[in-house]
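To whoever is on call:

I kicked off a structure prediction for a single chain this morning and the downstream step that reads the tokens threw a length-mismatch warning. I double-checked the sequence; it's 430 residues and nothing unusual in it as far as I can see. Pasting both halves so you can look.
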Amino acid sequence: MKNFIEELQWRGMLHDSMPGTEEHLLEEMRSAYVGFDPTADSLHIGSLVPIMLLAHYQRCGHRPIALVGGATGMIGDPSGKSSERNLLDEKTLRHNQECVKAQLSHFLDFTSSAKNAAILVNNYDWMKTFSFLDFIRDVGKHITVNYMMSKDSVKSRISSESKEGMSFTEFTYQLVQGYDFLHLYQKNQTTLQMGGSDQWGNITTGTELIRRIGGGKGYAITCPLITKSDGSKFGKSEGGNVWLDAKRTSAYKFYQYWLNTSDEDAEKSIKIFTFLDQETIQNLSIEHAKAPHTRILQKRLGEEVTLLVHGKEEFEKAVAASEILFGNSTTEDLKSLDEQTFLDVFDGIPQALISSELLSEGISMVDALAAKSNFLSSNGEAKRALKENGISVNKEKVPEDFVITKSDLIAEKYVLLQRGKKSYFLLRFY
């Protein structure tokens, strides 16, 4: 059995733990759970920290339990929020649960016959038959309002400075989450709950219920809330959340997110978001320090995380797509990209909308560069650029007499024009 607490410490993933947690975990295999929010059909990279907590936990010989908060998703967690969230119906929650499980399967082993095989549970399954009267009688009476109001997540919302206030629904959140811990303690012998540092209050409410109702002892571990070196929120890009589902964030964009991290963030992230051992990471850091411009850390980080989330094929496509802007790529390389990745690679470049009917007769290069697109300012400039052999179509140099036809289309609707090394323009046919 590997020491889980030590593993978290050197990876920078331990914020706090209850006294006796380390000893408790070293005695024998233990079950621990982390809750996941099912309010979307995909997790995002902000969820990767708790996912990795469970993954490292399983690799240390313990049993991880992923709890999808179907019931709590219908309430909303006040922790770290200034207002309430939209509530979801059961059908949507069930769909989201299946999506979340599929993503977690990349990190956790749910299928093995080993004693520490991962389990997925949904708290809606035990909360849906629980009447309000039963809940306040059997659970609510054991926790005082004074205790609940002492939690930071509640204090910040009911202070005189808070404009929004807090509904009774959200106020009860910690009781419902606390009951989850008690339920899993009684049904699955779960003695540990893990989560972000903002969850400490909710987790300790659970340990209190285990003590008062279950007559046992529960433990807590929290990890730090990850921020970037510039102080901005981890997991956000200019376009919003970086999702684990390729339909929301392509493998290319996902890979690029890690590739573009700062040296400081890469050094921190490679410990948290990969399974690489301490020695390997130290060696990578030494190599990186010798030649930071080669971005050794970022490349390895991007590789490891993209392989985990998207698999080998999508990772290779992402690398190939990353090379297109900077490497010696070909028309075949471009045509191998799916439409979304193609658009992601050339995101932000100017484009012109052209009728596809013109392709039946073909479009001359001068027209494509000037009259039809305004990529170049005039026919004269277009002719000069072509004479200088400075124009490419879909990454291939073309002569003056080249004509664009349907056979040049990428994803059946795009043609990429290029002047020199860095000036791109997209023709989009409709």
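Update from on-call: the warning came from a stale cache, not from the record. Cleared it. Sanity check on the structure: The two ends are 61 Å apart (CA to CA).
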